[in-house]
Specification:
The protein is of the alpha/beta class and 296 residues long. Helices cover 49% and strands 10% of the residues. It has twelve helices and six strands. It has a six-stranded mixed beta sheet. Helix 9 crosses helix 11. It is globular and about 60 Å long. It starts with 9 loop residues before the first strand and ends in a 5-residue tail after the last helix.
Length: 296
């Protein structure tokens, strides 16, 4: 997936595994080295592909050694899938999914300069067996976005990952909390409700308006989840209660003063909204339509 000149990896996303990134990329390079590339919307030669020496898998060796990757390519996107129909469908739909995510937020069409490389497994079990990760994952490095996705949660994570990657490229200087919240709210209603289900009445002591991506990666999983939830609440509040155009301006400038807030009044407004949203969710009074992000 990656050229040999690119040596450094940047991480972003919801990491549920402590697998070293360089180890994961090494496995990925082994995959690519063993596959004969084809051009356009076509598949690889149908040969068994060994991602790593299959004998290491013991009783799973026969399952692993018979796996075949199918490759589909289009502008900016390369899909490798173990299930041919899943890979083909994703390749045909992915550009429209990305554009629809941008449209929902009122963002203009953004021509991607990054390359998107996606490894798609039929289930989380194979994701874990082949790459040693518990759930879908995204990584960034010089001009390349790599995703390891299980088809089990494709609907939940793909829009989130695509928005994360797009904003990473188009708004690199925007607040990280905004990029994170926008990405999560771009995912399925089910995933958004799961994230919002972690709302607590008392907000954390994390300065989520100013937290950097670098500091986020250093936090424990529990604190990252807290940050994700608070960022999602923030973006939902600003988009739904104050409108699309001001939110886009805030995404560009990162100045909370655009809303007429100072730090104190913002904190009070956010805490009140956070409490009200939690109560309404507990009463099952928040309709899907409110959680859906649509262009106004």
């Amino acid at each position: 997936f990656f050229s040999s000149r690119r040596r450094h990896t940047r991480l972003q996303g919801d990491w549920s595994s402590d697998v070293c990134s360089s180890d994961l990329l090494s496995l990925l390079l082994i995959v690519v080295a063993k596959i004969s590339l084809a051009n356009g919307y076509s598949t690889f030669d149908q040969e068994p592909v060994m991602l790593v020496p299959y004998k290491e898998y013991g009783e799973d060796a026969n399952l692993i050694k018979d796996l075949v990757w199918n490759k589909y390519s289009s502008e900016n996107f390369t899909i490798l899938g173990l299930n041919n129909e899943q890979a083909k469908t994703l390749a045909q739909d992915i550009k429209n999914i990305k554009n629809n995510c941008l449209k929902r937020w009122g963002l203009p069409y953004i021509t991607a300069n990054n390359e998107y490389r996606i490894m798609l497994t039929p289930n989380k079990e194979l994701l874990k067996k082949l790459f040693g990760i518990q759930s879908s994952k995204i990584e960034f490095r010089d001009g390349v976005v790599a995703m390891w996705i299980s088809a089990d949660d494709l609907q939940d994570v793909l829009p989130e990952f695509l928005m994360m990657a797009t904003l990473y490229e188009s708004h690199p200087d925007s607040l990280f909390s905004l990029r994170k919240g926008v990405s999560i709210l771009s995912s399925s209603n089910n995933n958004v409700r799961n994230v919002l289900g972690r709302i607590s009445e008392s907000t954390s002591e994390i300065d989520f308006l100013n937290l950097s991506e670098k500091d986020y990666r250093k936090m424990s999983r529990e604190k990252r989840e807290k940050f994700d939830t608070e960022s999602t609440v923030l973006c939902l509040m600003l988009k739904k209660e104050f409108g699309e155009y001001k939110f886009i301006e805030f995404l560009d400038k990162g100045d909370i003063g655009l809303y007429g807030f100072n730090n104190e009044t913002f904190t009070r407004s956010y805490q009140r909204y956070n409490k009200d949203l939690k109560n309404e969710l507990l009463k099952n009074k928040v309709p899907d339509g409110y959680l859906n992000i649509e262009k106004r």
